[in-house]
Automatic annotation (TrEMBL):
GO CC, alphabetical: cytosol; ribosome
Organism: Paracoccus sanguinis
Matching SMART domains: Elp3
Residues at which [4Fe-4S] cluster 2 binds: 179, 183, 186
Record-level Gene Ontology MF annotations: 4 iron, 4 sulfur cluster binding; aspartic acid methylthiotransferase activity; metal ion binding; protein methylthiotransferase activity
Cited PANTHER family: RIBOSOMAL PROTEIN S12 METHYLTHIOTRANSFERASE RIMO, RIBOSOMAL PROTEIN US12 METHYLTHIOTRANSFERASE RIMO
Enzyme superclass (EC): transferase
The Radical SAM core domain, residue ranges: 165-403
Record protein name field: Ribosomal protein uS12 methylthiotransferase RimO
Annotated region described as Disordered, given as residue ranges: 1-37
Cofactor(s) needed for function: [4Fe-4S] cluster
One record GO biological process: tRNA modification
EC number per UniProt: 2.8.4.4
Amino acid sequence: MSLNPPNLRPDLAPVPRLGDDSRLHGPDREALGRGGQPTIGMVSLGCPKALVDSERILTRLRAEGYAISPAYQGADAVIVNTCGFLDSAKAESLEAIGEALAENGRVIVTGCLGAEPDYITGAHPRVLAVTGPHQYEQVLDAVHAAVPPAPDPFIDLLPASEVRLTPRHYAYLKISEGCNHACKFCIIPDLRGRLVSRPAHAVVREAERLVASGVRELLVISQDTSAYGVDLRHAEDRGHRAHITDLARDLGGLGAWVRLHYVYPYPHVRQLVPLMEATAATGTGVLPYLDIPFQHAHPDVLRRMARPAASARTLDEIAAWRAAVPGITLRSTFIVGYPGETEAEFQYLLDWLDEAQLDRVGCFQYENVRGARANALPDHVPDAVKQDRWDRFMAKAQAISAAKLSAKVGTRQRVIVDAVDEGGATCRTMADAPEIDGNLFIDEGFAALSPGDMVEVTVDEASDYDLWGTL
């Protein structure tokens, strides 16, 4: 089986691994140990939504008196939060479980692959327990059974600060779970259920806490951000309405960057665009950035995927967004080699990409997923053809990216600093989401910078995906 490059897989996110405690910060680093505490390690795989689940599990465990171990050897048990979106992701999850068993021996499995317990125990019968996605109580029960808590009532049973696995200055903000779409290549609704939106006041309250703790960028995530609140009938509660436009407006007033991911191009997305116009002037608010999962452009392929098949109207929407906010950044992911995809349909996709001129593009080759309806479609594309189309697609996307970044040379950009070392500062512009997009590097005069700083930079140089600049 050919595997998609991890940095282009839409189902993968930053992968915090045991053995690296640099992602824990503030009270979380202090919580790594007091004498006698039971300790739990966490390996988190998959998308940012799974990362948020890992953070919630660790936060609950901290409140019960557990310490967080940054190494296999220091843990009384290890939780592996798995991904089950693609067969290749399942293979990576099984490998991670095997590594944890070999290094520690006491492993609890949760996450999307946990929806297939027999698949896991068939490969690794020694795991202590298997639970499905976002089954927080079952994970805690499994931890209690494997490693009973030993809280110190004078220290541990206090309201715990939230444990986060991202750097201090940005955080993922999950606004809903599940999905109402029925795309034939996807089993997310089977794994995580139908759309369930969080109340808007709860989301805003969490965002306020994050900003107060030093977070300067909120990354809004869900399975379908545009559909937020549909299941709640966009009800208003405690002064906050459960609609993505209202929520974006509320979050945009907190003084941080707000980046919207997984936004389906419904007509009401136009209402988000005006919120982005002021951000360039103020430096905070809803960023002029939309992450939209187009997946393909040819109407027949989209119909076979059971997705909206209006690529021409999508181009009109893109033109309208750019007319309103000329600097808006558009990011998307695509599938090549979907069953039945002809050379003509693939060429249509390339021509559409030429016209759309998307700023950031990822692509992966179609893979069968157990339980997905696309598996039964006729005319599966040979692996060699999928690889050839992936190469051609990425060459086209790379050329577009290089031209767009070259046009930024000489401009001033507001950036957020992600890391500083002896070689320079690694930053991101408003056009760059962490881990999945490009970077802006500063290699002179950076000594006074720290992660989380926001500064103005003049762009001096560009490559296919990254920029270089000076303060």
